[in-house]
Amino acid sequence: MSYEFITVSIDETVGLITLNRPKILNALNLQLVDELVAELERMDRDPAIRVILITGNEQAFAAGADINEMAEASAIEIMKRNQFAVWDRMSLISKPIIGAVSGFVLGGGCELMMNCDIVIASETAQIGQPEIKLGVMPGAGGTQRLTRAVGLRKAMEMLLTGDPISAREAWQYGLVNRVVPVEAYLQEALKLAKKVAKQPPLAVQVIKKSVHKAEDLPLQEGMDYERSGFYLLLASEDRKEGMQAFLEKRKPRFTGN
């Protein structure tokens, strides 16, 4: 497919989506988010793709929402757009999503980053939710996912001041997985994506869903969900291949069946 505000490429079994509005720091307008989610869903259906990687550029992953679309719109107009419904579809992607972020990761950019399952950040990344400085608040999960990620006190500080935190501080709070030099962040993310892509696809997807359920379910219900996934994977061809390869001391050949 052809898009205006994202570019798409494939590297072996990794699908790479690059946000592409560099002149305005990859500001997230409605069309860009629509394109992004459409491509995420397409890649999720493509059996040749096992992991999805989302990135921007060194200057900005995404500096927030496109304020030009909101400045003059009324509350009723924005409500009728139902613009966050498309964001909800991101949580339905079954394949792992890795974020490679650098520079400005603000507002909607931070919310997009938090929709990723694993995040590699460049040491230049500045991460935050500055919506309060515009008289509003996050609407695509910023108050909810940030609180779950960094805890109530730190989330409250970030949301009420609007001040960003550095990549290193984000790592200390568990908001990102790894901080690397800016010249290496994309390659590091791609390397990690390829490593995950070599794992059995069904197990990867069941694990992803189980981990996300841990945020929503009480412990015993989460344990029951995990065990259901475990039993389900016992019926897969990849389980047979993985165990046989282990016994034969060879590398497994996972097919996703």
UniProtKB/TrEMBL annotation:
Annotated family: Belongs to the enoyl-CoA hydratase/isomerase family.
Family matches, as InterPro entries: ClpP/crotonase-like_dom_sf (IPR029045), Enoyl-CoA_hyd/isom_CS (IPR018376), Enoyl-CoA_hydra/iso (IPR001753), Enoyl-CoA_hydra_C (IPR014748)
Keyword Calcium recorded: no
Keywords annotated in UniProt: Lyase
Family matches, as PANTHER family: ENOYL-COA HYDRATASE, MITOCHONDRIAL, ENOYL-COA HYDRATASE-RELATED
Segments passing through the bilayer: none
Annotated organism of origin: Brevibacillus ruminantium
Protein name: Enoyl-CoA hydratase-related protein
